[in-house]
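I'll show a sample.
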Amino acid sequence: MNIRKLFLLLAVLSAGFQSPAPSNATTQVSRQRVLQGIITAAMERTNHSVRYDPAYVKIPYPGGDVPAETGVCTDEIIRIYRAVGVDLQKGIHEDIVQNRDDYESQLHKRLPHPDTNIDHRRVPNMMVFFSHKGESLPITKSASDYAPGDLVTWDLGGGVPHIGIIVDRRDAQSGRLMIVHNIGAGPKMEDVLFSWKVTGHYRYLGPSL
């Protein structure tokens, strides 16, 4: 057997031992596991006492967080995803660096420079990121179109943005799925899906899904 045939044989044998690509079933199981982790983490956040504080704070990068006893609506989303191993600070910063024009368009102003201390804590930036890296879902007036784990953004009035995440508990009165959010009194689980104008509807399970 000459050298060329030997290499071809080794290549064929090597290919035969490669791990098969993940099946759709395996991917679906992984998605469900991450989704349930996000929902569980969101509900766990309601056990924490958090003083609403939007102050600019210098934090480490990556994996940085403002003091645990403080935060705003975006900080709850950041903490929920961190509980399942997803660093939104890092993800949003990297996406801003690569797609700065999209973020400036959403903010309607020029970003002086990417800032790992605050960029990920802005609702408009989260909206761009989730539309880039996750799924942008329809905005409707039907509660049945919104599922546990979905992220929802609102305009509270006057262009003030807000964000929360849907969990798998229903309000006893309306029957609608409730939302974990922090609008000023710390993380709460409430029936607020249609309390304000919905501006975004997303699903994000992390960089690998």
User: Anything to note?
Assistant: The first strand starts at residue 51 and ends at 52. DSSP finds six helices and eight strands in the chain. The CA atoms of residues 92 and 129 lie 6 Å apart.
